[in-house]
């Protein structure tokens, strides 16, 4: 094995060649989650997004609550390729045990969990969502992939457990960083605050004073609203979305500060956090520098149409040139667009796709050299009021990858 191969093959993710991607994490829970998962993962765009990320990153880290993604990955890749991906650490999982919600009566953003009750026992999908990590994986394999033999399924179970990590944090940390941090972000970021007010007006609320984000209209004292997919409908929905973005930042930080495929608008949050930490606005303007690269072969239509299989692309992905490309990508420079195109094309040249696939634009958001290690920020600047700002001040400079750097706001 060459030195290059040794460098790119790692038993565990690191922040330089890894990405936490919530695209494969459905925001649903409750009754008939098995059917909800089946509907969610049947989207062809998810298959193409999944393999596209594996072509760009050595390690894909997938957040999950119930491991409903596992049967779909096996279906997409085939059991052997999935096992191979576990063996090389190319796919790993971050297990969340709770769900973000907004509680009435002034409780605001919270994370809630549900326990099994004798009078109302869990269904198997409830056990997968709320139960222990190993039980969740086993239940998904049993019900989602009944074909493999028991011995083979047990082997996949053991390897999936090895590549899974539960996200742990204290309640005080959640309150300060997710709940209060979300309120602070919205309050101190004009674009976020203005959008919240417009949403309130759209449902008939005319705030004469700043909205109290723990007492927003739309939820009764004894009820709760949870995160949903689709367009933002009301102020509470918006606040939950911002909290989810903060949670995604937390997840990336919890595994060492990896790249982040973030929800729409997360770049607004990150820039705002730097500004409110006292960083010079002129430098924050260049916080996310977009690198737009044209004429990249777009394999996604071919995957979505079924004309090329993920197992075939997986074999290409594991080839020497593809590994070299991903190794080079960890040091990509905004001036290296031509090299990017050339190496990406070379990494796929073993397939016949290059003759027929359409061109694609890939946009990378790359943090510029902001001098964050420069201790120009004195004490007393209130760094604790925003989530993980200290990481940026100490020199943590993530490379944020956005497939499309879309905006959170419809009018933007």
Descriptive notes:
By secondary structure, the chain is of the alpha/beta class. It has a domain at 16-166. Helices cover 45% and strands 14% of the residues. The protein has 18 helices and 11 strands. The strands form 3 sheets. The protein has a 5-stranded parallel sheet. A 3-stranded antiparallel sheet has the order 5-4-7. The protein has a 3-stranded antiparallel sheet with strand order 9-10-11, with helices on one face. A hairpin with a 4-residue loop joins strand 4 (99-103) and strand 5 (108-112). The protein is globular and about 60 Å long.
Which descriptors apply to this entry?
14% strand, 412 residues, five-stranded parallel sheet, disordered N terminus, alpha/beta, globular, three-stranded antiparallel sheet, 45% helix
